[in-house]
Amino acid sequence: MLTALALNCTLSPSPAGSSTQKMIDEVLAALGKHDVTGDSVRVVDHDVRPGVEADMGPGDEWPAIRRRLLAADILLLATPTWMGHPSSVAQRVLERIDAELSETDDEGRPLTFGKVAVVAVVGNEDGAHKIVADVFQGLNDAGFTVPAQGSVYWNGEAMQGVDYKDLDRTPDAVATTTATLAANAAHLARLLGAQQYPGKA
C-alpha cells in the first residue's frame, strides 16, 4: 500500500475554510482509487521556523512534519496563489526541504530519492503555471521525482470573489487533470519502490 502526505500551504489557520484543502481532498480521493492512502497537514497551524536545516531547535515543529514526509511515498505540495506567487508558507516549506540535500543514506542518496512529488495550485489570479514550475524545480533539486502531468490547478476569474471552495462542482478539466495526476503519481511511486535510483557511494 502506497502512502501520500499533502502539505497545505494556505495562509488561513484552522478551522477556516480552505480552497487549497478542497483541492487536496480531491487529489487524495483520486489517489485512493489507486490504493494510495493519505492525509494532510495545514502547515500554518504549526510553528515551522524559518531556516534551511532539518531541525531549527527548540519549538520547531518541522521535524515532526518531516518524519511524516519521509515516511510517505508521494508528497503533494498544495498552495494558493498570492500576487502571482506561491504562498509564503509554501516558500518556507521549500526552504526547509532544502535541508534534504545534506541528508543522505549509506549509498550517498538523499532520503527523498525514490519519492514522488506532485503540485496543486488554486487562486483567482494568474500565476499557476509559474508556481508549478518553481515548486517542481525546488522539489526536484531536493531529490523528488516528478511524474508526467503531475500538477493540477484552478484559476478563477481575475479580481472576482469566487474561490475554489465556493464552486458548486469541480470543473471537468480539473477533475480530469486530477485523475491523470493520481494515476501517474501512483504508477511512478510503484516503479521507484521496486527499483531505487543508483547510489552515489
From TrEMBL:
SUPFAM superfamilies: Flavoproteins. Residues 14-154 form the NADPH-dependent FMN reductase-like domain. It comes from the Bacteria. It holds the Pfam family FMN_red. InterPro entries: Flavoprotein-like_sf, FMN_Rdtase-like_dom. This is NAD(P)H-dependent oxidoreductase.
